[in-house]
Amino acid sequence: MYPIVLLSVFGIASLYLGFSKSKNILLPSVLFFLAVALAGNFIDWNQGQVLYFYDMLRVNNLTMAFNGIVLISAFMIVAISGGFQDNADSEPAEYYGLMLFSLVGAIMMIGFEHLIMLFIGVEILSVAMYVLTGSNKRNLRSNEAALKYFLMGAFATGFMLFGMALLYGATGSFSLVQIQSFVLTAHAATPSYMMYAGLLLLLIGLLFKVSAAPFHFWTPDVYEGAPTIFTTFMSTIVKTAGFAAIYRLLEHSFTGVYHFWWIVIAAITILTLLVGNIGATSQNSFKRMLAYSGISHAGYLLIAVTALSKPTENAIVFYSLAYSLATICAFAVLMLVSKENTLEGQPDERFEAFNGLAKNNPLLAFVLTVSMLSLAGIPLTAGFWGKFMVFTSAADRGIIWITVVAILMSTVGLYYYFRVIIASYLKEGNLIKIRVAPFYLVVLLLATFLTLLFGLAPGLLEGII
């Protein structure tokens, strides 16, 4: 509850800071705001279940852990967004304000106890992301991406609202507690097909947000067209909040009909793994590859959701953190490299742009390599243990065949993740020494350090929830 109030106030404050004569005050102010919100997030730690806003929002250790991942990711992303100040056409106050407001929506999605709170959270997050996607008004690619995202997001919202209406019609309530009670009592005696239809439609809306196939079509174009800093925000924070919401919904209210929805989620999981990994192999753009990579990682996270076994909570939290750290590093290095290389007046985001990166920029090449290894699930990185936990949760439930498919798709992932590593170390290029701002470099090193630390000692996070 505290982060919601703080971020709402801070979002308004950042807009007023935009009236100041110097833009230099904005970045440190927003970082301070996020640090305060992160501290406020853990006030209720180990207090059990705490309900706020007329029992429409629940706070416990799990929701605070997800909130922490979202806020830490936002802090790192804002820290590498100093380029706003270098662009005379940018409006950093509005950008930061929208980012802070979108975090309010993400936190509502993570801790909702009522379907209306879920809908409000999804819309606050989504509307902010529609605007940020098209923030580069002079770029036709950005405009196209924003329009696609908005139109397809509107359709997904329609599905989600219709699903909520059907669930209300079947159960008589929007409260997760009341829905759970219906599933375990009235539905157990007389199956409700209206409830099944409502659950499916609601899941379609949420699966769209996390880029799960076949609701992924917007992802490559939107990721490529949006300014890279907002693509980073979208690929980490939106995905974390989306999976927290899906897990919250299914684990709390619909375990009684697991026999119904696990088949649907399992089919979507397999399709997402195939589309994400196979689609990434044919990309020439590093940014589009990361878009398909995000689709594939949605598939890995869906494995844990499908299993819904005892280790699932820790698996989703750990995987979300590992994925966010590696993705932020990958996009951060892309922003630096593409700024130095242009193609027809636009930043060069192809794999070839990284040719020879290690020669004059060994530290950036190392950061990029660690992030790619983590996304690929190579041992001694956090990504390896994230996949291990996900596969373990599926094995505990006895869904071995999904694990086999996921392992096979992981081997496909080695191809496209290693392409950029090979380009950085083994190919000749003309990249000059790239100047990196000190705080930007600190964020890269911190994310890389945490990726390696949790790869060497994954038990540091085990059991804290």
Beta content: under 5%
> In the residues, how many domains can be counted?
1
Cα-to-Cα separation, first versus last residue: 18 Å
Provide the low-confidence segments as ranges.
Answer: none
Order of helices and strands: HHEEHHHHHHHHHHHHEEHHHHH
Structural class: mainly alpha
Q: List the total number of helices.
A: 19
Helix content: over 70%
- Rg over CA atoms, rounded to whole Å, is 21 Å
| Total beta strands | 4
Shape: globular
Strand order of the largest sheet: 1-2
The average pLDDT score comes to 90
Quaternary organisation of the protein chains: single chain
Biggest pleated-sheet summary: 2 strands, antiparallel
Tell me what you see in this structure.
With 465 residues, this protein is mostly helical. It has one domain (2-460). It is built from 19 helices and 4 strands. The chain has helices at residues 2-17, 26-41, 61-79, 92-111, 115-133, 140-171, 176-184, 186-189, 193-209, 218-225, 228-253, 258-281, 286-307, 312-340, 357-360, 362-376, 382-397, 400-426, 438-456, and strands at 50-52, 57-59, 342-343, 346-347. A two-stranded antiparallel sheet has the order 1-2. Strand 3 (342-343) and strand 4 (346-347) form a beta hairpin. Helix 1 packs antiparallel against helix 2, helix 10 (218-225) runs antiparallel to helix 11 and helix 10 packs across helix 13. It is globular and about 70 Å long. The two termini are 18 Å apart. The relative contact order is 0.09.
